[in-house]
């Protein structure tokens, strides 16, 4: 254990200081947040208005100037731009007319390729400008109007076509734009930020948005306050500032490793989801409040206001206007703005085994043979920091890992993979080629504007420097370091983990880069802080593509830090959690929240990173973890080992069963990931998204209770010690027990179910067809040619539908050569048929079709394509069609012939 | 005429198609095949759980019919089932059926990948040759180890004979001194108790005692009741008591186990007393030192810090291993402990040390003390079989590491044990029938 004395020491120091709340900034420590207004009554005196005659209109762009009311000073005017990047999206940009402070506008990481800039029609009256879409087809597509106040204080309203207000901008007059002139009085900041030289003075921006008639608000990951956002009148605002927090608290609005400044508003009593995306990677605080008022019809109405406050940058707001009964369209539109999630290679959907640190080749090989001996499938073994030589990334320790490529070859023989950690801090070692290379090319972040030095700080290797990923050349250089000749010992079966990329810097305020460090183009870190982690993963992503000559292999990267857009490059995990029941209880809501914010490929350290879980906690964690999109166990070096077998029977057997369940669902999961990558749909979903019309799922007390995978599987994690039974809410419809297939009919009620240690309640939803594989092999690759079993779960109308997506699971052939199968299945009127979308891949055989919930038991015959009779068995009302031997991508129809049919 | 032949062929064909259960059934163990041979001519079979009945053609048709999986011994169709690799000429293996036709050769004879018959080589012969060679080597090691153990035991026995003599002497000495002490106390009480009047008899007794011990000069102490004299006497007494304590310590040093001269398993390791053995990790980061009957230490060569990772806990070696506990506590962790696994060899040294879990270590130590006689009469065969199964399981693990081949070594051991039991059983039977191996061997010799 003594290898890590320094680390352990640091760990202890950190543990003690993390528990002191003082270590991380509060709103009061930040000048611009300190003066937060908390949605007081309109202070119209200080508000902005449009400068008359400043309006310029082009086909796709509306522009005008804003100035402070009653202000004599004409220099401080602002430019307002309105565009329509998509048919249902409004973009509002407010910037200084003459920006001097190197304000950063995040443009390059937006998914411009999926923008469809819209033309608009402007109608002006004396008091207002009205916008609507020009194109006739778009008018059908889009369903809103924009109303801009010309005379009185500046404000924008989004209205439905029949005039109902959807949301309002600057309704609370909290628009502010601090310029160097307005911030002359700024004093040196208090407390933890004393090291900040603030050469440009304050440059904060803020704006309020009010969602009309809103239900719950969601979004703003990464926080531990549960799924729906709380009002912040009491206590701190939500904070978005990427920091490394060890042993983080539950129920806190403090910042964590990643940030997505996006908020969703579910309209009350309507299937409608509006959203705003505040495109600003600087430190951001968000206040939330609720106004309750009586409407004309004497009904209560709730408006919910959000107040974004960023340290610097410009106001760049995207408003996604929801459409009724098309809630998923909001996610698609958000993905069109920030990028669709990458389609992961299928191996990464299997089980990952990690620990800080597996110390040698021998240990890795022992691990693999233990998994195989115990018949527990896994896909990936992970190497944490100590696999390197002296914590120099891109190297392997020559004593403990003398033959890394040989090791990777051995592990990957059955199709498994390995992952090595590559963090962005570069050890200051003048004899290291990589360091010298970066140093000579000036690739590191600078200390500040006054000195001409690179920033140096402490991290795992000791004194380190950080590459400046804002510089395109640095990103290219970083990518090139992943080529097989540069990263010696790596092979195509080695994938990458970008940890500590907030970035984490030890012994500094908030464990991260000082805000006045300088990036490419004289941009201060304060401008782009929340973007750093994303840029690291983007460069790594390109590196993993370019390392293969044909550039045809899909990368897999895990990142701790993230921003809006990270979904294009990496999976995300929830960082250094703790092995206790409270963390387990909140982990699912953290993951669902990330899914709602466009990041579907997410998971947590199963079992908890810090501290030692007891057998029951570990088992319960594996049970819910086996349903998380990213499924990895990882633990700290100062904890007992946490592999699935450490507690012996019955726990090992239970954990094995749930891991195998995950492998059995791989065809279903892969299909969900494909949907996410093409439609932006979340994979882990809250109940209210799938059942928007039911009252219960929207209540806070049900939020932590369950989640859905796609819209087919409902999971109730058990996160309490010794819980023998659980009250669960089953939405209206038919549900089938995950293991026994026992049918349950619910009218939207609470049920009490038994929850012995071997079971968490999981249900298939009636009305869904779920493809599964029943032959569970050692890893995903070995299952790729195995036949499929289709499970048809009927709803109360004896109907069901579902789909499957299949490709080679690792290359871009699906994109470049259209090599994939996309098939839809429909069961209706005793007939199961296909609707082929694409059938251009080696097809998979269906070995069995299981139909559950049939109301009639008098099946006489089953015909394939109206000719061949198929063998079948009917037992306990479960119909099993034996060996239909049909290909999944082909078109076929299977008819159940009952006595009634015959007559 | 032609028609007749066609008809006949047709009958044969139909007949065959009805009874297409070929024996042996793929993937079935000999026992299971016995079961199949009984039903091979039937039209239907029952699943093992007795719940369902299916046509015999459903056996091994790559589709799982029986809930208990009993219809698919040779395919991957049913979950949580096993496949039997017969490995003719070598030891049979049992693998999970999910490894059938997964593209990886698991059985030594390659029989698990029957869908692609050219994929796997039959390595049974090779493995048998290798096994025999390893067996020979291992048996040599164990024989040498056992001989070394006997030699050491003789030495330590001699040593302990001497020790025993010394212990006896010391005990005798203690006895004598103790006697004196008791008498002194007694006489002292006689003299000092004013209420007691000594009889003449007693007086003579005391005098003769004093004469005998040459303690006459102390007589004044006894007779005098002055306090200073009493104190001096007391001092004498405590000196004698101290001497007894020292002698007792000496006995402990000669015989730490206080075994009362009875045989003890620890005696096999007696030669390790007061010795120590060191071992360095590959990266030279740590030195481990094993002090038998005392402790194990870990030294960090970077910061030159030494910690005890386990102490001898006075327990006996069981199943060839022993736990040293109560080492230094880890940072936010438990006390370190180390499991010592003994391995037979003619010389003593540490083979390896590893941290198997957070602050839990495993030390493999080779030494003669653990060796057993593998050449004694009837058990000889059994023991060799055990060695064989050990080697087989080790081979499975090492090939796995080299070629990422797989197989359930635990099951292999079980199989090997079964085989062993089977051999032992037949051997026993044969012996009883006077038709045993010996006879065969002698026939061969002729």
TrEMBL record, chain A:
The annotated region (Disordered) lies at 180-202
Q: Which CDD domains match?
A: GH31_GANC_GANAB_alpha (cd06603), GH31_N (cd14752)
Where in the numbering of this chain does the Glycoside hydrolase family 31 TIM barrel domain appear? 341-672
Task: Give the PROSITE patterns listed for this entry.
Answer: GLYCOSYL_HYDROL_F31_1 (PS00129)
Q: Where is the signal peptide?
A: 1-20
Instruction: Give the UniProt keywords, A-Z.
Output: Endoplasmic reticulum, Glycoprotein, Glycosidase, Hydrolase, Signal
Subcellular location(s) of the protein: Endoplasmic reticulum
Report whether Endoplasmic reticulum shows up as a keyword of the record: yes
Q: What is this protein called?
A: Glucosidase II subunit alpha
TrEMBL record, chain B:
Position of the signal peptide:
1-19
Q: Which domain of life is it from?
A: Eukaryota
Annotated coiled-coil positions are 153-180
Which Pfam families does the record cross-reference, listed alphabetically? Answer: PRKCSH-like, PRKCSH_1
Q: Where are the transmembrane segments?
A: 407-428
InterPro entries found in the cross-reference section: Gtb1-like, LDL_receptor-like_sf, LDrepeatLR_classA_rpt, Man6P_isomerase_rcpt-bd_dom_sf, MRH_dom, PRKCSH, PRKCSH_N
* Protein name as catalogued: Glucosidase 2 subunit beta
Species source reads: Anaeramoeba flamelloides
């Amino acid at each position: 254990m003594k290898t890590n004395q320094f680390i352990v020491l640091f760990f202890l120091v950190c543990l003690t200081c993390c528990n002191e709340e003082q270590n991380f900034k509060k709103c009061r420590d930040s000048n611009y947040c300190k003066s937060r207004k908390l949605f007081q009554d309109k202070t119209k005196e200080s508000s902005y208005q449009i400068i008359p005659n400043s309006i310029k209109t082009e086909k796709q762009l509306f522009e005008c100037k804003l100035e402070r009311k009653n202000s004599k000073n004409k220099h401080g005017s602002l430019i307002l731009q309105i565009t329509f990047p998509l048919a249902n999206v409004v973009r509002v940009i407010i910037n200084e007319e003459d920006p001097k402070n190197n304000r950063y506008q995040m443009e390059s990481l937006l998914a411009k390729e999926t923008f469809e800039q819209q033309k608009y029609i402007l109608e002006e009256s004396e008091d207002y400008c009205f916008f609507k879409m020009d194109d006739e087809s778009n008018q059908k597509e889009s369903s809103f109007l924009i109303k801009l106040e010309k005379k009185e204080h500046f404000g924008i309203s989004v209205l439905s076509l029949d005039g109902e207000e959807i949301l309002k901008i600057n309704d609370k007059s909290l628009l502010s734009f601090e310029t160097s002139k307005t911030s002359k009085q700024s004093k040196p900041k208090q407390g933890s930020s004393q090291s900040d030289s603030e050469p440009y003075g304050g440059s904060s921006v803020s704006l309020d948005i009010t969602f009309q008639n809103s239900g719950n608000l969601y979004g703003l990951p990464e926080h531990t306050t549960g799924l729906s956002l709380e009002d912040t009148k009491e206590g701190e605002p939500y904070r978005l500032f990427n920091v490394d927090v060890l042993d983080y608290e539950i129920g806190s609005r403090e910042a964590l490793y990643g940030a997505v400044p996006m908020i969703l508003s579910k309209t009350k009593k309507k299937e409608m989801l509006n959203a705003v995306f505040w495109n600003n990677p600087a430190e951001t605080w968000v206040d939330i409040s609720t106004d309750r008022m009586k409407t004309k019809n004497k009904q209560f109405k709730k408006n919910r206001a959000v107040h974004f406050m960023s340290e610097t940058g410009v106001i760049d707001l995207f408003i996604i206007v929801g459409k009724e009964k098309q809630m998923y369209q909001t996610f698609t539109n958000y993905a069109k703005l920030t990028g669709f999630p990458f389609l992961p290679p299928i191996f990464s959907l299997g089980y990952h085994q990690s620990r800080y640190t597996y110390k040698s080749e021998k240990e890795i090989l022992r691990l693999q043979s233990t998994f195989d001996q115990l018949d527990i499938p896994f896909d990936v073994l992970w190497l944490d920091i100590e696999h390197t030589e002296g914590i120099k990334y891109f190297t392997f320790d020559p004593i403990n890992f003398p033959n890394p490529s040989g090791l990777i070859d051995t592990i990957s023989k059955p199709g498994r993979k390995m992952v090595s950690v590559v963090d962005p801090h570069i050890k200051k070692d003048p004899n290291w080629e990589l360091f010298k290379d970066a140093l000579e090319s000036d690739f590191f972040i600078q200390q500040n504007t006054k000195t001409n030095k690179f920033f140096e700080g402490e991290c795992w290797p000791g004194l380190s420097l950080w590459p400046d990923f804002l510089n395109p050349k640095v990103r290219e250089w970083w990518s090139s370091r992943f080529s097989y000749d540069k990263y010696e010992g790596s092979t195509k079966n080695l994938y990458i983990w970008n940890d500590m990329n907030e970035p984490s810097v030890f012994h500094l305020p908030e464990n991260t880069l000082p805000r006045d460090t300088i990036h490419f183009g004289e941009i201060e870190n304060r401008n782009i802080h929340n973007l750093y982690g994303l840029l690291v993963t983007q460069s790594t992503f390109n590196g993993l593509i370019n390392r293969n000559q044909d550039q045809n292999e899909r990368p897999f990267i895990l990142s701790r830090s993230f921003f809006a857009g990270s979904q294009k490059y990496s999976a995300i995990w929830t960082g250094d959690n703790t092995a206790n029941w409270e963390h387990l209880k909140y982990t699912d809501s953290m993951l669902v929240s990330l899914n709602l914010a466009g990041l579907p490929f997410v998971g947590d350290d199963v079992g908890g990173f810090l501290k030692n879980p007891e057998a029951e906690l570990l088992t319960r964690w594996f049970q819910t973890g086996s349903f998380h999109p990213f499924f990895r166990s990882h633990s700290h070096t100062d904890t007992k080992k946490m592999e699935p077998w450490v507690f012996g029977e019955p726990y090992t057997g239970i954990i094995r069963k749930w891991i195998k369940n995950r492998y059995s669902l791989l065809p279903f999961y892969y299909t969900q990931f494909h949907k996410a990558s093409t439609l932006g749909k979340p994979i882990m979903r809250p109940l209210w998204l799938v059942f928007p019309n039911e009252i219960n799922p929207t209540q806070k007390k049900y939020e932590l209770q369950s989640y859905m995978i796609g819209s087919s599987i409902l999971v109730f994690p058990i996160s309490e010690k010794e819980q023998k039974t659980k009250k669960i809410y089953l939405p209206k419809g038919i549900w089938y027990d995950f293991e026994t297939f026992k049918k349950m009919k619910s009218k939207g009620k609470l049920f009490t179910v038994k929850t012995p240690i071997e079971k968490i309640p999981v249900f298939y939803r009636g009305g869904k067809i779920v493809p599964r594989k029943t032959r569970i092999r050692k890893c995903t690759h070995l299952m790729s040619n195995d036949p499929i079993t289709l499970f048809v779960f009927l709803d109360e109308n004896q109907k069901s539908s579902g789909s499957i997506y299949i490709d080679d699971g690792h290359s871009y052939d699906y994109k470049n050569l259209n090599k994939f199968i996309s098939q839809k299945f429909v069961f209706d009127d005793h007939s199961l048929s296909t609707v082929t979308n694409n059938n251009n891949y080696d097809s998979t055989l269906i070995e069995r079709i299981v139909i559950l919930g049939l109301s009639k038991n008098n099946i006489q015959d089953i015909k394939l394509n109206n000719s061949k009779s198929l063998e079948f068995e009917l037992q306990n009302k479960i119909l099993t069609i034996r060996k239909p031997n049909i290909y999944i991508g082909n078109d076929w129809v299977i008819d159940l012939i009952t006595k009634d049919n015959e007559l | 005429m032609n028609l007749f032949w066609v008809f006949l062929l047709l009958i044969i064909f139909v007949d065959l198609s009805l009874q297409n259960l070929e024996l042996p059934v793929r993937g079935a163990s000999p026992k299971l095949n016995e079961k199949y041979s009984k039903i091979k001519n039937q039209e239907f079979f029952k699943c093992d759980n007795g719940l369902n009945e299916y046509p015999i053609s459903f056996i091994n048709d790559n589709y799982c019919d029986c809930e208990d999986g009993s219809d698919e011994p040779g395919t991957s169709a049913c979950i949580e089932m096993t496949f039997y690799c017969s490995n003719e000429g070598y030891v049979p293996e049992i693998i999970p059926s999910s490894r059938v036709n997964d593209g990886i050769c698991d059985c030594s004879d390659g029989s698990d990948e029957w869908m692609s018959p050219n994929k796997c080589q039959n390595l049974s012969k090779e493995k048998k040759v290798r096994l025999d060679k390893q067996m020979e080597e291992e048996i040599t090691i164990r024989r040498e180890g056992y001989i070394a153990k006997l030699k050491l035991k003789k030495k330590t026995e001699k040593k302990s004979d001497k020790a025993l003599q010394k212990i006896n002497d010391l005990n005798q000495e203690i006895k004598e001194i103790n006697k004196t002490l008791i008498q002194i106390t007694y006489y002292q009480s006689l003299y000092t108790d004013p209420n007691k009047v000594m009889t003449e008899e007693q007086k003579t007794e005391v005098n003769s005692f004093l004469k005998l011990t040459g303690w006459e000069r102390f007589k004044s102490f006894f007779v005098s009741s002055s306090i200073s004299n009493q104190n001096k006497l007391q001092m004498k007494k405590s000196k004698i008591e101290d001497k007894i304590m020292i002698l007792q310590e000496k006995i402990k040093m000669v015989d730490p186990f206080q075994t009362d001269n009875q045989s003890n398993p620890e005696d096999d390791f007696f030669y390790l007393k007061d010795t120590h053995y060191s071992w360095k990790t590959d990266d030279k980061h740590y030195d481990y030192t094993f002090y038998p009957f005392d402790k194990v230490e870990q030294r960090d060569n970077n910061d030159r810090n030494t910690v005890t990772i386990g102490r001898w806990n006075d327990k006996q070696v069981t199943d060839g291993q022993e736990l040293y506990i109560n080492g230094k506590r880890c940072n936010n962790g438990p006390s370190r402990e180390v499991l010592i696994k003994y391995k037979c060899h003619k010389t003593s040294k540490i083979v390896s040390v590893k941290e198997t879990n957070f602050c839990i270590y495993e030390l493999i130590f080779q030494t003669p003390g653990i060796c057993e006689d593998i050449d004694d009469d009837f058990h000889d065969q059994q023991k060799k079989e055990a060695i064989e199964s050990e080697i087989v399981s080790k081979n499975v693990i090492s090939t796995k590491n080299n070629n990422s081949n797989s197989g359930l070594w635990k099951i292999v051991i079980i199989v090997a044990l079964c085989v062993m039991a089977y051999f032992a059983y037949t051997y026993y039977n044969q012996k009883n029938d006077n038709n045993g191996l010996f006879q065969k061997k002698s026939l061969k010799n002729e």
